[in-house]
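Saturday, quiet lab. Running sequence design on the structure tokens for the scaffold JK sent over.
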């Protein structure tokens, strides 16, 4: 194991998706504009190169946020890292404007993210999976001005350590399979979709099933229908049919910065109202255009007298088993209905994700992190985990804060502003080194 602890950084980012990419840019722009010392940083990413939901970069799928909600614009409209700056560099600005569309394709947004990360290459370590975050051995917590991260180097098959005065955890959502289903070469979670689809001979896929009612489920059903003209596509939907995502102007306000304050400083009733009335802005809903596309295909089939696209509504997958080469899916239409089995060549579970959960990474350090009555991490408005006073380092979360900061926690809508808030917090805490009093008096934290 190599010990690179002498390389203690002011900030170490765990995971390098769009959230920590946005933070890396905010730190870079802070350096460029600050008379103070640089805030040194390193970002650790387990993938071998940059990748944002690569397995869902399906043709013609579009972003669900405006291009103006890019990595920087809401924090710094004049940043050279904006989507517009990218379009300009790519020589496509006028063509993009001519599309008269706020929502670029996911493919194009990915290219933008790749372009932005390439400009920060000297502070990113790819192929580096963080295994744990802890206190340096034998250091009393109140004495330690840094945390120690253990990192696995995939290419070398070795481990190394790095020190951090602040850690920003942004490891993303965790894929969730339906109970009774396990991923294998014929049973795929949507997060593995393109990779596993490409491993198959398309001619072997004559009957495919997609389970789920959200955006990914509908996009995959449409993709399979178009890519496999010889195949039957069976969509298993627990609702009566796909429901539309509400992105109308008033509802969209739940993604604004003011909504984060309203949620964070609000009462339980306020927070409940956000989820009760506005879940349909993001969860288990589908963009209007994709719903219409699928319905049109199904209707055209009916006119032509073919039945290639089948919708099993009010139905859930209750189990999956392999019998020889066959994959048999157990399906139930309502809790008291009989379970029936269907054989498929591949099952795609677009069954969603669990929220980011840093507990495993924090290991022994978790004992110093305070939790609310429901056992959830307490988090300050500046996204810093509330710790016992002896911990002097900052542990920040980008993601996993739905209970404290609301609906945008796992989304892109707020990343530019959130990154700016985290940089401000790190820089303010650095200017006023933590005494016991300042640690204790950090402003209002989320009520339990
Ligand atoms: P993200 O998951 O992108 O990145 C986390 C990174 O951490 C990954 O690269 C992972 O490899 C790495 N990592 C994990 N554990 C690690 C460890 N121990 N060590 C090192 N690295 C580790 N939202 C939105 O607002 N608009 C949209 O259009 C979309 N579109 C969309 C499409 C699809 C298909 C999905 C699944 C989701 C979306 N989302 C979205 C929501 C999505 O959460 C969001 O787009 C971002 O991925 C959030 O960025 P993060 O950087 O927080 O996580």
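Result came back. Writing it out in full:
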């Amino acid at each position: 194991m190599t010990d690179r602890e002498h390389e203690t950084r002011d900030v170490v980012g765990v995971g390098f998706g769009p959230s920590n990419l946005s933070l890396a840019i905010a730190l870079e722009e802070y350096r460029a504009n600050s008379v103070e010392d640089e805030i040194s940083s390193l970002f650790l990413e387990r993938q071998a190169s940059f990748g944002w939901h690569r397995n869902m970069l399906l043709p013609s799928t579009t972003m669900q946020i405006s291009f103006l909600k890019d990595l920087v614009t809401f924090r710094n409209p004049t940043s050279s890292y904006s989507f517009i700056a990218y379009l300009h560099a790519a020589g496509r600005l006028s063509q993009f404007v001519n599309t008269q569309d706020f929502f670029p394709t996911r493919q194009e947004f990915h290219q933008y993210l790749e372009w932005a990360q390439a400009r920060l290459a000297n502070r990113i370590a790819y192929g580096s999976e963080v295994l744990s975050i802890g206190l340096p051995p034998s250091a009393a917590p109140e004495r330690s001005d840094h945390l120690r991260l253990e990192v696995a180097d995939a290419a070398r098959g070795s481990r190394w350590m790095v020190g951090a005065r602040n850690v920003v955890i942004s490891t993303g959502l965790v894929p969730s399979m339906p109970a009774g289903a396990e991923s294998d070469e014929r049973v795929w979670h949507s997060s593995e979709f393109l990779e596993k689809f490409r491993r198959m001979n398309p001619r072997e896929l004559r009957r495919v099933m997609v389970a789920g009612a959200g955006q990914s489920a509908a996009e995959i059903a449409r993709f399979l229908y178009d890519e496999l003209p010889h195949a039957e596509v069976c969509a298993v939907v627990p609702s009566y049919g796909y429901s539309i995502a509400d992105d109308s102007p008033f509802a969209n306000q739940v993604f604004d910065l003011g909504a984060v304050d309203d949620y964070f400083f609000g009462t339980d009733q306020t927070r409940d109202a956000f989820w009760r009335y506005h879940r349909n802005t993001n969860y288990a809903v589908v963009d209007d255009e994709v719903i219409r596309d699928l319905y049109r295909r199904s209707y055209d089939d009916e006119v032509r007298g073919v039945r290639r696209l089948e919708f099993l509504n009010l139905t859930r997958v209750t189990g999956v088993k392999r019998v020889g080469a066959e994959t048999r899916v157990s399906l139930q239409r309502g809790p008291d209905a009989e379970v029936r089995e269907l054989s498929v060549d591949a099952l795609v579970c677009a069954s969603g994700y669990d929220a980011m959960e840093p507990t495993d990474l924090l290991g022994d350090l978790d004992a110093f992190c305070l939790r609310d009555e429901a056992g959830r991490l307490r988090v300050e408005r500046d996204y810093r985990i509330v710790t016992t006073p002896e911990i002097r380092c900052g542990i920040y979360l980008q993601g996993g804060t739905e209970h404290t900061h609301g609906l945008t926690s796992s989304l892109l809508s707020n990343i530019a502003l959130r990154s700016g808030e985290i940089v401000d917090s790190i820089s303010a805490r650095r200017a006023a080194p933590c005494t016991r009093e300042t640690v204790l008096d950090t402003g209002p934290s989320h009520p339990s």
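Notes for JK: The chain is about 30% helix and 20% strand. The CA atoms of residues 207 and 232 lie 5 Å apart. Ask whether to fix the surface positions before the next round.
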